[in-house]
Amino acid sequence: MQQKKVIRTNYHTHSLFCDGNSEPEAYIKQALKNNFLALGFSAHAPLPFENTWSLAHADLETYCHTIRRLRTNYRSQIEIFLSLEIDYIPGVSVDFAVMQRRHKLDYMLGAVHLVKNPSGEGYWFIDGPRSNYDNGLKSIFGNDIRRGVETYFAQVNEMLSTQKPDIVAHFDKIKMNNQGRYFQESEPWYQKLLSHTIEVIAKNHCIVEVNTRGIYTGKFDGLYPGVEALGQCFELGIPITVSADAHNPADLNAHFAETEQILKDIGYRSIKVLKNNKWIDWEI
Ligand SMILES: [Zn+2]
Ligand SMILES: [Zn+2]
Fold first, then answer.
1. Is the pTM of this model over 0.85?
2. Which ligand has an atom closest to residue 14 CA?
């Protein structure tokens, strides 16, 4: 039987430095077993307030040093990349370009997990347990889901146009904790927000991450972004990567084979891989 080509990279990986469950080297060993070409570490960048899931400010240098050391140690077997998943919070987060220069990051993943209260203090934490989503929606947006979702996408759009991350992570993650309770993804106002963000992505030449984490954790029965949105990305010629958003070495290629088939059905024939500081096409 002819050997099937498979996705052999993952650029979205969380280790013990943030909310992952293993030392970085355990992910590398698993990546080698998976026959990966490359593995990128993307700890949650430090945040200006205490939390349980991001890298601590005090650990940032050690994190960078550790990943660079591993890159050298494994150079002959696999390419290791240093990155951060940086949360964009208007007026609060450090400029992405400054972060990249300061820490010599190979690439940047941009994400919005915390929607800034447009009229006061506090954040709507859209990830994590469902109770966070429900409580924030109530306390910050008075349960006005449309205003909450509009604020989320406005923050994503502002990140794309002002920070220009190499990769935009799970850009429709706002749907995860909704689960059809406050809105339906088929509603025209939601579809319009999604389409507009896809246009902003195209305009700013960002790579869209196709993220499988919802499926293998059972938190959302579909990809981030969904198949319909990916169809629009394809129409606009937006390049993609596939990532597991791994928090455990066993996650590294979770649901990749099925995702590859979905992408081929949409029309995609290649994904982006990082080679010599350039994102090049890798045939799938
Ligand atoms: Zn994330
Ligand atoms: Zn992540």
1. yes
2. 2
